[in-house]
Amino acid sequence: MGLKERRADAEATLRSAQRAAESGEPVPERTLAAGGYAFLLAELDLHLSILGQPIAPLDLAMPELRGKLQALAGSPPYRTEALAEAFTYPVLVRGPEGDVSEAYLYQSAEGAMLGGDEAKRPDWEQVVQALARALDAVRPADFEDKVYDPDASAWIYYGVRRGEPFEDMVEGEDPPEWAE
To answer: Domain segments of the chain: what residues?
Structure first.
């Protein structure tokens, strides 16, 4: 199946998620929906861009956001040990008018963020509100990971254990080679 067909399937999944949310039915795998918007945590075969700029911060801590996204789509398709780019999940967003655009959910040194091309949508504020409502209903998956914070010269061990997010900063351990 070519990229065009995979993209058409993804858009059909987004439409299904919107209809399911409106009727109170469960949404398809890897999707979220609320407030007339649908979100597909895209797989890498869709070749979505993670280039762009921050659109808006998300009111979630690093382990909570990753745990919720991991519950929906598995491990992040992109992750590093650098706090500035700890993980990224590419997303397709479909609005109430049927407009589909690319975005990405990620962790930066500034916190959990939604990123993308600001010029592609006039309704980013509504997108962020719908995304927050949709994520509220997701129970985070258990996982453990670590990132290095060069500003604090410390590792941050983070994750979710038995449904509870945690973050522990540990100073004194050797930094990664890239931080030296």
So the answer is: 3-140
